[in-house]
Amino acid sequence: MTIIALVIAALSGIAMAVQGSLNTTLGEHIGLLAGTFLVHVIGSIFALLLLVIGVDSGKWDMLAKVPWYAYLGGIFGVGIVYGVVASISKVGVANATTAIIVGQVSMACAIDHFGLFGLDTVPFNIWKGLGVILMATSAWLLLRR
Fold first, then answer.
1. Cα radius of gyration rounded to whole Å, the chain
2. Which domain holds residue 45?
3. pTM value?
4. Distances, alpha carbon 31 to alpha carbons 16, 26, 73, in Å
5. How many domains does the chain have?
6. Tell me: the pLDDT tens digits for 88-109?
7. I need a surface site. Which of 14, 66, 80, 120 has the fewest CB within 10 A?
């Protein structure tokens, strides 16, 4: 099961690079914030369509039990799309994605270590620290001209 989850994660990473590129093209034509807005409208319509056709019924009766901070994901989503579009248009897909991944993994280690947002703790250790350092070094090498 772990390998399947990792393959899905890798495919999501591929989709993120493609999405960032498409969003950047859209943003260059209609503006960063307008592009960000349109991306979320289209995504919301698509998610609604998936709900309507029964891909997932959802647990709508649980809405009142969701922690307040879990609703902030939509705000972060807008910031992420905007930031990706702004960075790709200035430094390119590979450079922006490299910086995104280093930031993402660094924050993920902190979230895991402290068990933030109600998630299980996954302790930080020397090997994870070394991995982050090596990743940051690799990013630096990729970003050099």
1. 18
2. 2-143
3. 0.81
4. 20, 8, 23
5. 1
6. 988 888 888 888 988 999 999 9
7. 120
